[in-house]
Amino acid sequence: GGLVAVPTDTVYGVACLAQDSAAVRSIYSLKGRNGAKPLAICLGDVERLYRYCHVNVPEELLRDLLPGPVTLVLERSEELNKDLNPFTSLVGVRIPDHPFMRDLARACPGPLALTSANISSQGSTLSVLEFQDLWPQLSLVVDGGPIGDIQSPECRLGSTVVDLSVSGKFSIIRPGCALTPTVEILKKKYGLEPESS
């Protein structure tokens, strides 16, 4: 039921067990986050994604983007905790390209809920000192050292969030740090069309 600060391949995150409703509520209160903003889930491997999501794209597409600095938004399955993002039928899935995070996710019985280690609407954090105001409310802080270039604003963009829930289409929810290569893969290799918003 605890909240743990963790390094990822993009920014520092706060993780808890996604199937633990009390822990999920704790993440919202820690961040002062609007309850209508969804949390992503974090898994260790692409294979585990099929348990928590209805996948309507080729597995090869998943493997081209994951693990990596991308969050894929898909239809959620019945397996996922109903208290996690109860207001939407979709869920964002993250498999960070970070050996520690993948090992941690594999060691947990279910998915992790994952969000950035900061107060909502403040900048993302690239070192543990940048969110020390949150430490007292965390069960554990895992210091993976600085992530990326602390001076570079691009490094704080977080993952690129792509909605793949509509067959044959994609829409970018957040440009993030991997927009260009992600769009190139989706359009050129898989022929997906950008959804007009």
From TrEMBL:
Pfam families tied to this protein: Sua5_yciO_yrdC
Residues annotated as domain YrdC-like: 1-178
Gene Ontology cellular-component annotations: mitochondrion; plasma membrane
EC number(s) per entry: 2.7.7.87
Localisation: Cell membrane; Cytoplasm; Mitochondrion
Membrane topology classification: Peripheral membrane protein
InterPro entries according to UniProt: DHBP_synth_RibB-like_a/b_dom, Sua5-like_dom, TC-AMP_synthase_SUA5
The keyword ATP-binding is annotated on this UniProt entry: no
One of the GO biological process terms: regulation of translational fidelity
GO molecular function annotation: double-stranded RNA binding; L-threonylcarbamoyladenylate synthase; tRNA binding
Catalytic activity annotation: L-threonine + hydrogencarbonate + ATP = L-threonylcarbamoyladenylate + diphosphate + H2O
Domain of life: Eukaryota
Keyword terms of this UniProt record: Cell membrane, Cytoplasm, Membrane, Mitochondrion, Transferase, Transit peptide
Assembly notes: Interacts with RSC1A1.
Protein family according to the UniProt entry: Belongs to the SUA5 family.
Free-text function comment from the UniProt entry: Cytoplasmic and mitochondrial threonylcarbamoyl-AMP synthase required for the formation of a threonylcarbamoyl group on adenosine at position 37 (t(6)A37) in tRNAs that read codons beginning with adenine. Catalyzes the conversion of L-threonine, HCO(3)(-)/CO(2) and ATP to give threonylcarbamoyl-AMP (TC-AMP) as the acyladenylate intermediate, with the release of diphosphate. Participates in t(6)A37 formation in cytoplasmic and mitochondrial tRNAs. May regulate the activity of some transporters.
Name of protein: Threonylcarbamoyl-AMP synthase
